[in-house]
Amino acid sequence: MHAPDANGATEIQPPITVAANLGRVEEDEEDEEDDDEEPFLKYERIGGILPELLKKDSASALCVSRSLLALGTHGGVIHMLPCRQSNTVHMASITDVAMNETGEYVAV
Hints:
One of its GO terms (biological process) is endosomal vesicle fusion. About 9% of the residues have low confidence. It is built from one helix and ten strands; from the N terminus they run ββββαββββββ. The chain is mostly beta strands. The longest helix is centred in the middle third of the chain and has 4 residues.
C-alpha cells in the first residue's frame, strides 16, 4: 500500500494482517531469547478483494459486525465487505466507522 507522508513523498506500507492473541504471558525475560518457542500471535493475511482496494488508498477506520466489515479510507471512501459495496461519502479522511448489530446502519 502507498500513503503520502507530510512532505508528499510516497512510502510503501506492509499489507494488513489479522491477528489473534493466544493468551500466553511471558514469565521471564530469559524466555524471549529462546527462538524455539511458539509465537504470541497467530495471524493470517487478509485475501480476497481487500489488498486490491488498498493499493490506491490506505485504511483509516474499521468496524466489524457479524455480517460485514466496514472499512473507511483516507480518501473518504467506505467499503462494505463482504457485500463489496463501496460509497464515497466524504472528500476528507474517514477517521471512525460504527454500525448497529445487524449491519443495517453505518455511521462515518
